[in-house]
C-alpha cells in the first residue's frame, strides 16, 4: 500500500495517522512512557502508541518508528528532523523540490540564486598593509584531478565577475586544495572508511596577512549566545550565500589579492576567503544590520531567529529577510530551516530540554584515532575543549594530556600510556551519552555553588535544581600559597568574571567556608581583597553557608588528580550519584 509522506524539518518526531494504521493493517505497540509534544499551533497532546514503517523512494527502502496520532496535514505520515538527519533519509529529503514558505514570498528575491549578491550603500573592503607586499609566488603543483576542478572554479569566478585577470601584478599568492569533510560520515578525519571527501580550492594569503594589521572587532560570545537563545520555543536558521563575496573591494586594493595558477594571474573584485580581517568586516556589517533585533543572533554567515510561537516567528523572519535583501545579501534556501523546535547552531543543538552538543560534530571526538604525535594530542584537546561544558571535571581529567603539550615536554613523543591513556579514553568515550545544559531564565533566581581545594576550584550555576554551567580550574603555584579564604573567594570572583551576565538578578551563593558569610561587611584587610570587593560590589548576591559534605562543587575540586601532584585519574564520584551536574563551562583558556 502506497502512502504519501511529508518530510518536515520542523517536526522533532515521526507521526502516522490512526486511519492509516487501520487501513494498512499495521501493528502498533504500547510506549513504555507516554510522550507529550506541542504542535505548530501550540496545542499539547499525549501519545501512547507507536508503530514501525518502511519508506521507499526510487528503489531505496528506509525503516522508521512513528508515533500514532491524528495529524492534521494532507499527508498521513510525517518524517521529522530526527530521521531526516540520517544520511540516507537526508539524501531523500535533499532530492525534494526546495520551496519557499508561503509567508516569505513577499521577500522571495532574497533566495534568488540568479541574483548577484553585492552589499549596497558604498561599503568596500579595504586591505591596509604595513610593509612591502610579498614577492609573486610560483604556482603550487596540482594533480590532474584537481587541475580540472581549478579550471572549473576559475571559470565560475570569471563569469560571475568575482575575479578578473590581474592588471599590473606586483604580488601573487599561490593556490592549493584542502580536504573537506567526508560526505558519508561528515568528519574531516574519515571514520566510516569510505573516504568520500570533497576538496576546497583555497588561496594561500599567509604572507599578505603577515603585513596586514589585525582588525580587533570581536566575534560573538558563543556561550552567552547559547544561553540567551535556548529559552525560545521556535527557531529559524538562515545561511548567507557566498557572504564574503558580497563585499566589493576598493579599487586601490584589488591588486593585493592577486593569486597565481598555471593559467595566469588573477585578482579579486570582491572580498576573498582567507584574507585577514574579512571575518571582522562581515561580522561588523551583520551587527550593524541586525543588532537592533534582540531575538536575532548572527555569527558570521549563520543567522538564528528565535520566538515563543510560530506566529511571532513568521513576523520576525520577514523583518530579517527585508533587511538582508535591502543590503544586498542572498540567502541559501537549501541550508535554511524554518519554524523548528530543535536546531543546530555553531556545533550545538538547541532543543526544548536545553543545549547539548551536536552528535555529528562530537563523532569526530568519539572516533579520534590514537594520538601518535604531540600535534595529535593538541588536535584532540582542541576538539574536546570546545565542548568542555558537557564534560564533568574537564580540567582535572585533561591534565595528563595537557602536560604532554607543554613547551618543556620531551621532544620524543612517548605515546599514550597510564594516566594519559585513561584521560584520552575518558574524554573520547564521554560522548556516547552527552548531557544537556538547562537554558538560562533571567526571570528566575540563580544558585551559585563554589568550592576550592589546595589545587583547584569548582563552580556550578543552577536554576531550579538544573545546572546552567559547570566550571573548574587549577590554581597557579602562587595561588596555591593563598589562604583558604582567598582561594574560596577567588572561585566566586572567577564565576562572576565568566558568567556575570547570569548573576545580575536574585542570586544565592552557597559556600562551605563559613568565614565568607561575613564577606559583605569585612573584606578590606588586604589589597587583593579590596580589589575583589570592589569588583563584586555591583552583584546583588546573598551568601549561604552549606556544610562541605553536601556541596556539589566538591566533586570538581577533590579529584584524585590533585592528590600528590597532577596525573592520577580515579573515580571521585560515581556517575549515577553525580546526576545532572556532569558539566563544565564553555570557555577559552
What does this structure look like?
This protein is α+β, with helices and mostly antiparallel strands and 589 residues long. Among the domains are: 91 residues, Acid Proteases (Cathepsin D, subunit A, domain 1); 207 residues, Reverse transcriptase/Diguanylate cyclase domain (Alpha-Beta Plaits), CATH 3.30.70. It contains 17 helices and 23 strands. The strands form five sheets. It has a six-stranded mixed beta sheet with strand order 1-6-2-5-4-3. The chain has a five-stranded mixed beta sheet with strand order 7-12-11-8-9, covered by helices on one side. Strands 21-20-19-22-23 form a five-stranded mixed beta sheet. A hairpin with a 2-residue loop joins strand 4 and strand 5. Helix 14 runs parallel beside helix 15. It is globular and about 75 Å long. It starts with a strand and ends in an 11-residue tail after the last helix.
Strand arrangement within the widest β-sheet reads 1-6-2-5-4-3
Spans of at least 5 consecutive residues with low confidence:
85-97, 558-589
Second rung of CATH, namely the architecture of the domain at 144-350: 2-Layer Sandwich
Mean of the pLDDT scores?
Answer: 80
CATH C-level class of the domain at 144-350 is Alpha Beta
The CATH topology of the domain at 144-350 is Alpha-Beta Plaits
Number of helices, counting only DSSP H or I runs of 4 residues or more: 17
Gyration radius from CA atoms, angstroms:
27 Å
Please give the alpha-carbon distance between the first and last residues. 58 Å
Could you give me the name of the CATH homologous superfamily of the domain at 144-350? Reverse transcriptase/Diguanylate cyclase domain
Domain Reverse transcriptase: 159-350
Protein name: RNA-directed DNA polymerase
Organism: Thanatephorus cucumeris (strain AG1-IB / isolate 7/3/14)
GO molecular function: endonuclease activity; hydrolase activity; RNA-directed DNA polymerase activity
Amino acid at each position: 500500500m502506497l502512502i504519501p509522506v511529508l518530510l518536515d524539518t520542523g517536526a522533532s518526531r515521526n507521526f502516522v495517522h490512526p486511519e492509516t494504521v487501520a487501513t494498512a493493517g499495521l501493528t502498533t505497540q504500547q510506549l513504555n512512557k507516554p510522550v507529550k509534544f506541542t504542535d505548530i499551533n501550540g496545542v499539547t497532546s499525549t501519545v501512547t502508541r507507536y508503530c514501525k514503517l518502511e519508506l521507499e523512494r526510487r528503489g531505496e527502502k528506509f525503516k522508521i518508528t512513528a508515533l500514532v496520532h491524528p495529524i492534521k496535514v494532507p499527508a498521513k505520515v510525517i518524517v521529522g528532523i530526527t530521521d531526516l538527519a540520517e544520511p540516507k533519509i537526508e539524501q531523500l529529503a535533499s532530492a525534494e523540490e526546495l520551496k519557499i514558505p508561503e509567508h516569505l514570498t513577499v521577500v522571495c528575491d532574497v533566495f534568488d540564486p540568479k541574483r548577484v549578491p553585492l552589499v549596497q550603500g558604498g561599503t568596500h573592503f579595504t586591505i591596509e598593509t604595513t610593509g612591502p607586499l610579498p614577492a609573486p609566488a610560483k604556482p603550487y603543483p596540482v594533480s590532474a584531478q584537481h587541475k580540472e576542478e581549478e579550471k572549473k572554479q576559475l571559470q565560475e569566478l570569471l563569469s560571475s565577475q568575482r575575479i578578473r585577470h590581474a592588471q599590473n601584478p606586483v604580488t601573487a599568492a599561490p593556490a592549493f586544495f584542502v580536504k573537506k569533510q567526508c560526505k558519508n560520515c561528515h568528519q574531516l578525519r574519515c571514520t566510516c572508511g569510505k573516504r568520500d571527501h570533497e576538496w576546497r580550492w583555497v588561496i594561500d594569503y599567509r604572507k599578505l596577512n603577515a603585513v596586514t594589521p589585525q582588525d580587533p572587532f570581536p566575534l560573538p560570545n558563543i556561550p552567552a549566545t547559547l544561553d540567551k537563545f535556548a529559552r525560545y520555543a521556535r527557531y529559524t536558521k538562515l545561511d548567507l550565500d557566498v557572504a564574503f563575496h558580497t563585499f566589493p573591494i576598493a579599487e586601490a586594493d584589488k591588486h593585493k589579492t592577486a593569486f597565481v595558477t598555471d593559467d595566469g594571474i588573477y585578482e579579486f573584485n570582491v572580498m576573498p576567503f582567507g584574507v585577514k580581517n574579512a571575518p571582522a568586516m562581515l561580522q561588523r556589517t551583520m551587527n550593524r544590520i541586525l543588532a537592533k533585533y534582540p531575538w536575532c543572533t548572527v555569527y558570521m554567515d549563520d543567522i538564528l531567529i528565535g520566538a515563543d510561537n510560530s506566529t511571532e516567528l513568521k513576523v520576525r523572519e520577514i523583518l530579517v529577510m527585508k533587511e538582508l535583501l535591502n543590503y544586498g545579501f542572498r540567502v541559501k534556501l537549501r541550508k535554511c530551516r524554518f519554524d523548528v523546535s530543535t536546531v543546530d547552531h555553531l556545533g550545538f543543538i538547541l532543543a526544548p530540554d536545553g543545549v547539548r552538543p551536536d552528535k555529528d560534530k562530537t563523532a569526530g571526538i568519539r572516533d579520534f584515532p590514537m594520538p601518535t604525535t604531540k600535534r595529535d594530542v593538541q588536535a584532540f584537546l582542541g576538539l574536546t575543549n570546545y565542548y568542555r561544558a558537557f564534560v564533568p571535571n574537564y580540567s582535572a581529567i585533561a591534565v595528563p594530556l595537557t602536560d604532554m603539550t607543554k613547551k618543556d615536554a620531551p621532544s620524543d613523543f612517548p605515546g599514550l600510556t597510564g594516566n594519559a591513556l585513561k584521560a584520552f579514553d575518558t574524554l573520547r568515550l564521554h560522548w556516547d551519552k552527552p548531557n544537556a545544559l538547562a537554558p538560562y531564565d533571567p526571570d528566575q533566581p540563580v544558585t551559585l555553588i563554589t568550592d576550592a581545594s589546595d589545587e583547584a576550584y569548582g563552580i556550578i550555576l543552577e536554576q531550579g535544581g538544573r545546572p546552567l554551567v559547570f566550571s573548574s580550574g587549577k590554581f597557579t603555584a602562587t595561588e596555591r600559597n593563598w589562604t583558604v579564604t582567598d582561594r574560596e573567594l577567588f572561585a566566586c570572583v572567577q564565576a562572576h568574571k565568566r558568567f556575570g551576565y547570569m548573576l545580575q538578578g536574585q542570586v544565592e551563593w552557597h559556600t562551605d567556608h563559613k568565614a565568607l558569610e561575613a564577606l559583605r561587611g569585612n573584606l578590606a584587610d588586604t589589597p587583593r581583597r579590596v580589589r575583589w570587593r570592589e569588583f563584586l560590589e555591583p552583584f546583588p548576591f546573598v551568601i549561604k553557608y552549606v556544610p562541605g559534605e553536601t556541596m556539589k562543587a566538591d566533586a570538581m575540586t577533590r579529584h584524585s588528580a590533585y592528590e600528590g601532584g597532577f596525573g592520577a585519574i580515579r573515580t571521585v564520584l560515581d556517575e549515577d550519584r553525580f546526576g545532572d551536574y556532569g558539566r563544565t563551562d564553555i570557555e577559552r583558556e
